[in-house]
């Protein structure tokens, strides 16, 4: 499905929580009984878009829902539940999301013990890009170094100005002309205070006039 069709269909699929745009993975490297991909999940009209790496890191190979199952995925989910106006309610394996959308750079699953290839990330980039633009969130929250690097490199002009030190970037903000990026350190490396810093940052953003930044229709920086 191309970008133009995604943009046209966004208003007609918002009642679908999982894979609202009907994406079809371009390849399958899993066994016959394994899940092919973990698709985007949540509110397709969300202002906040949380971007993970792949199902093996941030979860969903069993549930089909991003940010479930794994320690890292559940840590993100818990932080989003703890915000003053929670983004997440309901059961952990099939949560209800309000004003929040979750997706991965690499939605396709790979066999246990394997990592996605660089070619795999490249093959899936256009799918991620089309979905990100269709969601058109105000706030992008990339989780981990790869997702943060990708968002800053592809959707802003900030990457060359920023040292990709996730401990320093965590729960801060990088502003462009169209939206705000709030990088999140991967939870497997969180230290004391990192979860609270993220919760506090999201609470502060919700209390601000964040809608003054809008959209990713063009490159920003």
UniProtKB/TrEMBL annotation:
GO terms for biological process: DNA repair. Coiled coil: none annotated. One of its GO terms (molecular function) is metal ion binding. The keyword 4Fe-4S applies. Gene3D superfamilies: Uracil-DNA glycosylase-like domain. Pfam families: UDG. Keywords: 4Fe-4S, DNA damage, DNA repair, Hydrolase, Iron, Iron-sulfur, Metal-binding. It comes from the Archaea. Residues 39-172 form the Uracil-DNA glycosylase-like domain. This is Uracil-DNA glycosylase-like domain-containing protein. The lineage of its organism: Archaea, Methanobacteriati, Methanobacteriota, Stenosarchaea group, Halobacteria.
């Amino acid at each position: 499905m191309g970008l133009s069709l995604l943009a046209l269909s966004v208003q007609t699929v918002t009642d679908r929580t999982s894979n609202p745009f009907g994406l079809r993975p371009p390849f399958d490297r899993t066994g016959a009984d394994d899940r092919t991909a973990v698709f985007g999940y949540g509110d397709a009209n969300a202002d906040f878009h949380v971007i993970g790496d792949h199902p093996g890191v941030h979860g969903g190979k069993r549930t089909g829902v991003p940010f479930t199952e794994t320690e890292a995925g559940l840590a993100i989910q818990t932080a989003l539940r703890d915000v003053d106006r929670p983004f997440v309610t309901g059961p952990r394996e099939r949560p209800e999301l309000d004003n929040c959308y979750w997706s991965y750079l690499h939605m396709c699953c790979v066999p246990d013990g394997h990592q996605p290839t660089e070619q795999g990330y490249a093959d899936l980039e256009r799918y991620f890009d089309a979905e990100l633009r269709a969601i058109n969130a105000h706030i992008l929250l990339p989780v981990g170094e790869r997702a943060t690097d990708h968002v800053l490199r592809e959707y802003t002009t900030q990457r060359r100005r920023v040292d990709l030190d996730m401990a320093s970037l965590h729960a801060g903000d990088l502003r462009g002309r169209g939206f705000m990026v709030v990088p999140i350190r991967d939870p497997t490396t969180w230290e004391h205070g990192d979860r609270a810093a993220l919760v506090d940052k999201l609470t502060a953003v919700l209390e601000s006039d964040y809608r003054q930044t809008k959209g990713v229709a063009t490159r920003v920086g």
